[in-house]
Amino acid sequence: YTWKVAVVMDAGEGIDDVHSTSDVQVLAVRMPNLVSTAVDTTDWMMFATTVDVIEAAVGLDLLAALPDWIERIVEANDRYPTATAPATAAGVEGTAISFTGAGSDPDAGAALTYTWTFGDGATASGATASHSYADDGAYAAMLVVADEYGAADTVHVAVTVTNAAPVVTLAGAALLEGETYAPTGTFTDGGSGDTHTATVDYGTGAGSQAVPVTGTSFTLSNVYASAGSYTVAVAVTDDDGATGGATATVVVLGGGAALTRLIADIEVLVAAGSISKGNATALKANLENARKLLDRGNAGGRTAAVNDIDAFLNKLDAMTRSGNVPAAAADSLRQYALRIRGSID
User: Fold this and answer.
1) What are the backbone angles phi and psi of residue 191, rounded to the nearest 5°?
2) Which parts of the chain fold into alpha helices (H)?
3) Nearest-CA neighbor of 195 among 161, 234, 236?
4) How confident is the model at residue 77 (pLDDT cuts 50, 70, 90)?
5) CA-CA distances (angstroms) from residue 265 to 60, 175, 227?
6) Of the candidates 118, 115, 117, 122, which has an alpha carbon nearest to the alpha carbon of residue 146?
7) Which of 192, 230, 248, 263 has CB atoms 3.0–4.6 Å from 172's, for a disulfide?
8) Can you tell me the distance from the alpha carbon of 168 to that of 192, in angstroms, rounded to the nearest whole number?
9) What is the per-residue DSSP string for 13-71?
């Protein structure tokens, strides 16, 4: 064979002027030393090859004066891969956004690597990737596609991330008059970089008031002095102005209604066989009398009702010690009776 490698550059330039593959053109041919009428020997492109092929045949390192990374590319007759990705992407903060560079075009037979940068300090690899942004805003993502020879191409993706409103969780409660509603509410927000403020309306007619926020939680506190059903409304607002809210129902029983419930609890235990009818009658007598006293609506009636509740508690303790009332059932009745006592005392 006869072979030739030509390095083509602009007039007057030398090796020091080669900074990329676009600064040099390399042509390589390998032609058999045969005369054949079957081959058009006038078209030298029929014998075009790569420098790598010639070097392997003759054992020479022909373009060693070029920078190594440029040498690898031009000796393989490589071309830059074409990085391809959608020009734009959009999503909501805290929610994964998908990116794909799968349409990128490699040189024939070349293996590609994919490097993503998302504009917020995060990176990923692979032809496809997903990323969640911690805050809303505009981000400049970038994909670099490189082949095994070091040739690379870059494509930019303009990312628009919109704000997410907080999602609030709040529990209601069943209280007695004078008790405090003090739950710890929580919220989530896709914008983990956001700061938050919160307000609460306890449904008493007093209007909204600020609530301190710690991380993603807040603690409420309100004493309900009067029986009724109240709707508690909480609103959490992030630093971008998006507001999320939740409501909960607080049911407040007066002393008389609470005693009625306690009497009903005793009747449930009778039906279950946990308390005899006779013992239940003795226990309910004090509670029913206390309920009548509360119906008077005066301080004297409340004081007398407290005495009846104390008598109920003493009977319950005695029945528990004698084994006539199971300890677990007695404890449930005792705890609720003590709550009623505290509410009316």
Assistant:
1) -85, 85
2) 51-58, 68-75, 255-271, 277-295, 299-321, 327-344
3) 236
4) confident
5) 99, 16, 20
6) 115
7) 248
8) 15
9) --GGG--SGGG-EEEEEEE-S---TTS-TT-GGGGB--HHHHHHHH---TTTTS-HHHH
> Counting beta carbons within 10 angstroms of the beta carbon of residue 193, is it exposed (0 to 12), middle (13 to 18) or buried (19 or more)?
middle
Output the average pLDDT for the chain: 92
Strand pairing report for 222-223 and 184-188: unpaired
- Could you read off the pLDDT of 117-156 as tens digits, one per residue? 999 999 999 999 999 999 999 999 999 998 877 778 899 9
pLDDT digits (tens, 9 = 90+) for 147-189: 877 778 899 999 999 999 999 999 999 999 999 999 999 999 9
Q: Where are the beta strands (DSSP E) in 121-227?
A: 123-125, 128-131, 137-147, 152-162, 167-169, 173-176, 180-181, 184-188, 196-201, 208-211, 213-214, 217-219, 222-223
Q: How far apart are CA 218 and CA 52, in angstroms?
A: 69
Output the six-digit token pair for 233.
């409304």
Q: How far is Cα of residue 294 from the mean position of the Cα atoms in its chain?
A: 52
If you search the block for the tokens 């509360």, which residue do you land on? 294
What is the model's pTM?
0.71
Q: Give whole-number Cα distances, 99 to 7, 119, 176, 185, 336, in Å.
A: 40, 13, 56, 36, 58
Q: How far is CA 112 from the centre of its chain?
A: 32
Q: Please report where in the chains the tokens 């059903």 appear, as a residue.
A: 229
pLDDT tier, 270 (very low <50, low <70, confident <90, very high otherwise)? very high
Pair of tokens at residue 282: 């003795």
